[in-house]
């Protein structure tokens, strides 16, 4: 057996085990976070929410090849849906989260008709147009969304009727973390299923998949709808934990941020979305604390370095390092 074969075996083993490593990292991160104060719990809860959001985009972009500059559309719809549900129907959080997922999924289902018929720059512009349209609708519909002032004044009932959302953020963090683990596990199964494998084939070569008889639009439509629903879950969690929904949940800045997270962590690898979310949020927080005026410059430098030396993100960089070591 030659060195190349050895390398292939090692890389293959790494790929088979990488989800287990990410699972373990999730548990360790949760345990460590609970040891810190309420500020870090709030930051950790935000990291978890952004990780779910990044996972949703990775599903569409990393596995289906669907480019998006407007993924905040689904985050915002989920956030407003959860907030309005708590305000007008029931403060029960789990059912509110389901409503958020369904509402965002429906928007993804409908917008997918137009978005998935295009590619490249046109697709990017359509996703941006959808998010911009929803942003303006939320701004105009002040009687429903409260416009610039944001949706406030709603309660969130104790989780499972027992765990009150305390001011320290313990319940909120644990709630968000459990949802992250469930979402991650479900997406892991999805990307390893026939739907996920077919989507990756479509990403690599749509023409070839059509020749094999695959309904490209239908498969991408399903993937895009699920991606939207997951983004809605992230938005719903944000609404329930923070008790406010503002127009920033639909803003272009949020869409751009999640794209940066995937650039940092790597696409087409679910755990890359986790790495990217953690790095982006923690780095942004620390840089802003050190220099509130120029913190974006720090983030920009880090992004340039990663794009230069790890173009496939941190997750891809780790995989390449493992492969290089196995060749020695």
The helicity comes to over 70%
CATH architecture heading: Orthogonal Bundle
- In N-to-C order, the SSE pattern is HHHHHHHHHHHHHH
Q: Could you tell me the CATH topology label.
A: ABC transporter involved in vitamin B12 uptake, BtuC
Question: Number of DSSP strands?
Answer: 0
The number of distinct helices, counting runs of at least 4 residues, comes to 14
Cα-based radius of gyration, to the nearest Å? 20 Å
Describe the structure.
- This protein is mostly helical and 328 residues long.
- The chain has one domain: ABC transporter involved in vitamin B12 uptake, BtuC (Orthogonal Bundle), CATH 1.10.3470.
- Helix content is 77%, strand content 0%.
- It contains 14 helices and no strands.
For this entry, give a set of tags:
single chain, 328 residues, mainly alpha, ABC transporter involved in vitamin B12 uptake, BtuC, 14 helices, globular
Helix and strand arrangement:
Blueprint: H1 3-33, H2 38-63, H3 72-88, H4 93-115, H5 120-140, H6 142-145, H7 170-191, H8 194-204, H9 206-211, H10 216-242, H11 252-265, H12 270-290, H13 295-309, H14 313-327
Helix pairs in contact: 1-7, 1-14, 2-7, 2-10, 2-11, 2-12, 3-4, 3-5, 3-10, 4-10, 7-10, 8-10, 11-12, 11-14, 12-13, 12-14
């Amino acid at each position: 057996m030659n060195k190349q074969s050895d390398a292939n075996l090692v890389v293959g083993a790494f790929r088979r085990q990488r989800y287990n490593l990410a699972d373990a990292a999730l548990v360790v991160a949760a345990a460590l976070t609970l040891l810190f104060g309420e500020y870090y719990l709030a930051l950790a809860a935000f990291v978890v929410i952004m990780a779910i959001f990044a996972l949703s985009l990775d599903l569409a972009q990393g596995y289906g090849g669907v480019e998006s500059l407007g993924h905040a559309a689904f985050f915002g719809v989920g956030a407003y849906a959860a907030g309005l549900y708590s305000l007008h129907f029931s403060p029960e959080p789990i059912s509110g989260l389901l409503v958020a997922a369904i509402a965002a999924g429906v928007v993804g289902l409908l917008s997918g008709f137009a978005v998935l018929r295009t590619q490249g720059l046109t697709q990017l512009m359509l996703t941006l147009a959808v998010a911009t349209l929803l942003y303006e609708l939320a701004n105009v519909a002040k009687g429903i969304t409260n416009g610039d002032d944001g949706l406030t004044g709603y309660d969130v009932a104790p989780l499972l009727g027992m765990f009150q959302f305390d001011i320290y953020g313990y319940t909120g963090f644990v709630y968000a973390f459990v949802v992250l683990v469930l979402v991650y596990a479900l997406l892991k199964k999805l990307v390893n299923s026939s739907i996920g494998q077919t989507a990756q084939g479509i990403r690599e070569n749509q023409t070839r998949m059509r020749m094999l008889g695959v309904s490209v639009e239908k498969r991408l439509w399903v993937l895009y709808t699920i991606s939207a629903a997951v983004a809605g879950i992230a938005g719903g969690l944000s609404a329930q934990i923070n008790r406010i929904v503002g127009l920033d949940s639909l803003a272009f800045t949020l869409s751009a941020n999640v794209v940066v997270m995937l650039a940092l962590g790597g696409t087409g690898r679910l755990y890359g979305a986790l790495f990217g979310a953690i790095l982006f949020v923690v780095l942004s927080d620390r840089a802003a604390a050190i220099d509130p005026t120029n913190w974006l410059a720090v983030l920009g430098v880090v992004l340039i370095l990663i794009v230069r030396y790890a173009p496939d993100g941190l997750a891809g960089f780790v995989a390449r390092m493992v492969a290089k070591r196995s060749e020695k």
